[in-house]
From TrEMBL:
Gene3D superfamilies: 2-enoyl-CoA Hydratase, Chain A, domain 1, 2.30.42.10, 3.30.750.44. NCBIfam families: prc (TIGR00225). The keyword Oxidoreductase does not apply. This is Carboxyl-terminal processing protease. Residues 92-160 form the PDZ domain. GO terms for molecular function: endopeptidase activity; serine-type peptidase activity. The keyword Hydrolase applies. InterPro entries: ClpP/crotonase-like_dom_sf, CtpA/B_N, PDZ, PDZ_sf, Peptidase_S41A, Tail-specific_protease. Belongs to the peptidase S41A family. GO terms for biological process: proteolysis; signal transduction. Residues 399-443 are annotated as: Disordered.
């Protein structure tokens, strides 16, 4: 029997070696032809093959080869950082559908932390948001199934399902003595990327909930409508990026380009390969898909100069941090709110064939002034006086998160927020944890929006709340 296992292991080494070689050749085909391919770790692959053989021969139940190999791929990617992952056929399809703004589920952005599922942010106007799921909630049960030990992919599959079907989610929330149980009904999640309204004549409000394929076009339409409907010249514009988990990079560039001068640097990336080193500017070649008409070319000229305030919080991540950082660094907008999530890494979706793909972290984002967003986020110019999310889950709290490469910067940025909150922690303890539901952004009860309007009108926030940081 042992000889059979050894032979099977050797064959598997050959198979794995062949696959790795083909993947390596495929990967370097896009790189400089002078780059030398790294040699394969034969000893480690042999150990891998031995483990495979032992599972096939000795595990208590028979396991399909496909399942073992898929789980091995998952393990390689999950072990790298919180955002790299393997996408099977269904997940790859859902990712493609999701960028169009419609998919099935509950409306929760989640990540994996120490074998458990944590909520990054509930998406507005979804079952999860309406039920009161909050950022930082730790999901411990899905129906009667414990989450501990699942992969993130497995947990997401349990949360997904046919519309109108029910699921019970049990969460542990900081500050609550007992687990909270939410009975949700799955639905088709249709995300309205851009929402807008006139707060009063001369003052406009634009909220971006997520960066999707057509966010740029939707923003352009909203701007034109707001300027045409205002009975007074525009005196102030509030861009709300709170709880915006990010999305497509070209959408972030488009939103930034709407407010910045032409050719202004929006963001740049640094990675190991030539393809991972990008500099994206505020002009059409960086935000248009294909050769379509430039939907930003006929915006009102005042959109480049109208006073702006950008609202952010701990749920603002990725693409929303890129926009906030670009507007802040170019001194185009005051950034108001609390420290952002700090998701400053680039995930590239690399198709593998058979309708599967891997989502691989390939670079880090930097604001125009060279500040790394990764694990730090954007530090507001004016800190939110009513903030209650200083203890929210952020990128720096995730295990295996990638450091930003700027020694000391992460600590100083986070400490600024922590020190501010420490002085008022006793007062804040009784706040939002006791509320019956989430505050509707843009409503008359939105304290940060009121603060922004007061700032525009000269009822300014106390100067000691301002930060010396220019971003990232």
């Amino acid at each position: 029997m042992s000889n059979i296992v050894k032979k099977a292991g050797l064959v598997f080494v050959g198979a794995i070696t062949g696959v790795m070689l083909s993947l390596n050749f495929s990967a370097i085909a896009k790189r400089d032809s002078t780059e030398i391919m790294h040699p394969l770790p034969i000893e480690e692959l042999r150990t891998f093959a031995q483990v495979f053989g032992r599972i096939k021969s000795d595990y208590v139940e028979s396991v399909e080869d496909k399942r073992l190999i898929t789980e091995a791929i998952n393990g390689m990617l999950v072990g790298l950082d919180p955002h790299s992952s393997y996408l099977d056929k269904d997940e790859y399809k859902e990712l493609q559908i999701g960028t169009h703004g419609e998919f099935g589920g509950l409306g929760i952005q989640v990540t994996m932390e120490d074998g458990l599922v944590k909520v990054i942010s509930p998406i507005e106007d979804t079952p999860a948001f309406r039920a009161g799921i909050q950022t930082g909630d730790l999901i411990v049960k899905l129906d009667d199934t414990a989450v501990k030990g699942m992969t993130l992919t497995e947990a997401i599959k349990l949360m997904r399902g046919k519309p109108k079907t029910a699921i019970k989610i049990t969460v542990v929330r900081e500050g609550e003595k007992e687990p909270l149980v939410f009975n949700l009904v799955r639905d088709i999640i249709k995300i309205q990327s851009v929402k807008s309204k006139l707060l009063e004549p001369g003052y406009a409000y634009i909220r971006i909930t997520q960066f999707q394929e057509y966010t740029g076009e939707s923003l352009a339409k909203a701007i034109k409508t707001l300027f045409s409907e205002s009975t007074k010249p525009m005196q102030g514009l509030i861009l709300d990026l709170r709880n915006d988990p990010g999305g497509l990079l070209n959408g972030a560039v488009a939103v930034s380009a709407a407010f910045l001068p032409e050719n202004a640097l929006v963001v740049y990336t640094e990675g190991r390969t030539a393809d991972a080193k990008m500099r994206l500017h505020a002009n059409p070649e960086y935000y248009l898909r294909g050769h379509g008409r430039d939907y930003l070319q006929d915006l009102p000229g005042e959109i480049k100069t109208v006073p702006m305030i950008t609202l952010v919080n701990g749920g603002s991540a990725s693409a929303s941090e890129i926009v906030a950082g670009a507007l802040q660094d170019h001194k185009r907008s005051i950034v108001m709110g609390s420290q952002t999530f700090g998701k400053g890494s680039v995930q590239t979706v690399l198709p593998l064939g058979n309708d599967t793909a891997i989502k691989l972290t390939t670079a880090l984002y930097y604001t125009p002034n060279g500040h790394s967003i990764q694990a730090t986020g954007i530090t507001p110019d004016i800190l939110d006086e009513s903030a209650d999310d200083d203890q929210r889950l952020r990128e720096a709290d995730l295990s295996r998160h990638i450091a930003n490469g700027q020694k000391g910067e992460k600590k100083s940025a986070v400490e600024k927020v922590t020190e501010e909150s420490a002085n008022k922690s006793q007062k804040e303890e009784s706040k939002s944890k006791k509320t019956s539901g989430p505050i509707e952004f843009g409503s008359e009860d939105d304290l940060l929006l009121i603060q922004a309007m007061n700032y525009f009108k000269g009822i300014t926030t106390s100067p000691e709340k301002k930060s010396d940081s220019a971003g990232g």
